[in-house]
Write a structure and sequence with these properties.
Distance between the termini: 77 Å
CATH topology of the largest domain: UDP N-Acetylglucosamine Acyltransferase, domain 1
CATH superfamily of the largest domain: Hexapeptide repeat proteins
Number of domains: 2
CATH architecture of the largest domain: 3 Solenoid
Order of helices and strands: EEEEEEEEEEEEEEEEEEEEEEEEEEH
Number of helices: 1
Number of strands: 26
CATH class of the largest domain: Mainly Beta
Length: 207
């Protein structure tokens, strides 16, 4: 048997399947052809629609629509998994992460404040805070691929179409516009400089 805590606050559609051992906390709305598999825990305030929640996965205060979440994965709070997304086993998808038409390999971490659209990420990769997969050029959508074990530092922009090779390291603040070879280390920032002229102008001094 599965367990629903506070049934009066939970909505379960007619086509929803909940397997034995699952736990549904208050405030959840489950609809469409959703399957919640054995041992999965839906903590409070999720919207799950036409999605597959894997065994022992945990979802917290998130929206999951047309997506699949692998066994043991942890999602949320405040994540948004959109149509076509597939999250692998034991992944960590954290707060304010949005995934759209994205395949995420097992054991990959996307812990906070990132957008991943039209992409495939390999196993054991790390996507840092503030990373943006720039998939739309104003007219067309483009695809990004990130290899196994790659490290994408904070505030990196990946301008699609682009491929990042396995075990590549992208330093924080880099904008990637061309393919990165396997195992490469890439940094693309403007060098920090101090400007005496700008300082004087801001302080109202003569140049």
């Amino acid at each position: 048997m599965y367990k629903v805590i506070s049934p009066g606050t939970v909505t379960v559609g007619e086509e929803v399947v909940i397997e034995d051992g699952a736990v549904i906390h208050p405030g959840n709305v489950l609809s469409g052809r959703t399957v919640v598999r054995r041992g999965a825990v839906l903590y409070p305030n999720n919207i799950v629609e036409d999605s597959d929640i894997g065994e022992n996965a945990e979802i917290t205060a998130s929206a999951v629509r047309g997506a699949a979440v692998g066994a043991g994965a942890k999602v949320g709070p405040f994540a948004n998994l959109r149509a076509g997304t597939k999250v692998g086993e034991n992944c960590r998808i954290g707060d304010f992460v949005e995934l759209k038409n994205a395949e995420v390999g097992a054991n990959t971490k996307i812990c906070h404040l990132a957008y991943v659209g039209d992409a495939r990420i390999g196993r054991g990769a790390n996507v840092g805070c503030g990373v943006i997969f720039c998939n739309f050029d104003g007219k067309d959508k483009h695809f990004t691929e990130v290899g196994d074990g790659a490290f994408i530092g904070s505030n990196v922009n990946l301008v699609a179409p682009v491929r990042v090779g396995a075990r590549a390291f992208i330093a924080a603040g880099t904008t990637v516009t061309r393919d990165v070879p396997e195992g490469a280390c890439v940094i693309g920032r403007v060098r920090q400089q101090e400007s005496e002229a700008i300082r004087k102008k801001r302080e109202g001094q003569d140049g």
